[in-house]
Amino acid sequence: MWPFSSDQAFPEVALEEVGTADSSASPAILEEYTYDYIIVGGGTAGSCLASRLSEDPDVTVLVLERGGIADGWADRVPLISSNPYRAGAPIGRWWAQPMPEVNDRSFEVVCGETMGGTSAINCMFYTRGPAGDYNRWAELGNEGWGYCDLEPYFIKSEHASRHAASDHRGKEEYRNNLYKHTDYVIRASQKAGIQPMDDLSTPSAPAAGFVRHDVSQDTAKRRHTPFHAFLPAKLVQERKARLKICRNVLVSHVEFAKDEPDIVQATGVHFEAADYRQAGRSFYARARREVVLCAGALGSPQILQLSGIGPREHLQAKSIPVVRDMPGVGSYLQDHIAVPLTFEAPMSDSLHELEASPLKVFKELITYLLTGNGLFSYPFQAVTLYLPSALLDDSSTIPASALALPALDTTVFANCPDLEVMPAPNNCTDHDIPGKGLFSFIIGNIRPKSHGTVRLASRNPRARPDVDLGFLTDPRDLEPLRKGLRLGMRLADDMRQQGYPLGNLIVPESLDDTTLDAFVRQNLRTCYHYTSTCRMGPEDEPGRPGVVDARLRVHGVRGLRVCDASIFPQIVGAHTMAPSVVVAEKCADLIKQDWRKT
User: Fold this and answer.
1) Reduced to 3 states, what is the DSSP secondary structure of residue 298?
2) Rounded to whole angstroms, how far apart are CA atoms 135 and 75?
3) pTM to 2 decimal places
4) Which of these, 100, 176, 269, 551, is most buried using a 10 Å CB contact count?
5) To which H or E segment does residue 526 belong?
6) Which residues of 471-495 are buried (b: 16+ CB within 10 A; e: fewer)?
7) Judging by beta carbons within 10 Å of its beta carbon (0-12, 13-18, 19+), is residue 317 exposed, middle or buried?
8) Distance CA 83, CA 122 (A)
9) Is residue 177 very low, low, confident or very high in pLDDT (cuts 50, 70, 90)?
């Protein structure tokens, strides 16, 4: 019984069981390794998609996942598993390219490599984002992707135990006393004109407010990823005749056939063991209907380019035969960007007390195991602020006159918040600050206009792709951060006036534009919310050619779709787990509809 063991053993499937070492084998042999659908990636979207497609008893599904299963005790404890840098975390991490606009700094890119993907290592926040985000997707030419189109899929995927029943979700009074600073933050926020929200995920949520995030937990207060939700071991065992999940697999490329001029058909995938010490052989599995890439915003464009689909000049430079010239593949990477303000705080109200006091760890761990409560039961943040920076006046206050419709109507994209302010009782910089209790305001620009790229480092599929995050390539991204930093400093000053002891550690020396811009460039960091590298949109969209159409089919290629955060036409103002799940829910229905017609 948990915490001493997993809920149930998950079936093991070897590479030799799902693929043939001879891709030119006879049709009879290939038929043994043919599946209706091959899903590349068992992460946030892939877990959901595999579950939904395998509901049909007449289809077969193969899932190929680069990682294993992160289902040990520490992998399920919210506070522990929310630290992707802990020992044994199931992640892929490598350095992105230096960025001239950020003092030539480089950042590590981090993604989950396990069943459930990045939802196994993130802060567990399950946020939809404003309705206006999805209405904007539809405005960009993606029919069927407005909020009203997607709301049924959001509802289908979730069981909102923290909310009362409602048409959209529910309501609950904000209450969380894990940290002493929380009440000080709330009072300071209200003084700045930022009021409480009942539920961030209703379409009527205002543009400005503070809220406790919903998190993906089960009734035992354990981390509950889409893998746990959609592919529990019992379900996989019941469907084992038609659902095969092969882990620790590296997909090298997609196979294509060209039976007619200008018509490309995806026919299968080539793969080998993810561990290079076991990678002496390559295997092939054939797709009877479709291959669906669910490898994430960094992995899916890499696989497309390795397969010959991407910008012609780049593919030729890497000596990869061009199957289809698609400039949009890997070309519009977006990520939320953030700047932490760092303060010294009482050690007793900081997560760093767990580093300093084994007794504190023991007490909190016992509390969690016996009651499901305490520090270990929740990620780092107890409350979060959302607001449009345009509503802030010169005193970093939202005046009462601004707190009225239509300015707060978030069904309209132009009104959606562009700032997320995250109070956190820990160090949120990229460097250690030992021996101190710490508190941070993380100032996030959640509507960046800058974008970067994902390109091949080489044609070796084991080589991590070259990632240029592209931060601040559009200077308009600085203004929301300036306003957010001023707001953060105002909130900290107000907390001091209330009597909460905060000492400045890493904060700007003054609040003029020049000083703030320099502070941003030196302290900016990633939020690991990578999206939009295989954008949904018309292939001939001026300036930003799309990769997939509104049914998530790769333009000009039969039998190939992409289903993950890479298809976002533009990044949403939300943590990306719930939007990725809704993409998979809709993709499953689109696939079923298309094959029902044939």
Assistant:
1) helix
2) 36
3) 0.94
4) 269
5) strand 525-526
6) bbbeeebbbbbbbbbbbbbbbbebb
7) exposed
8) 7
9) low
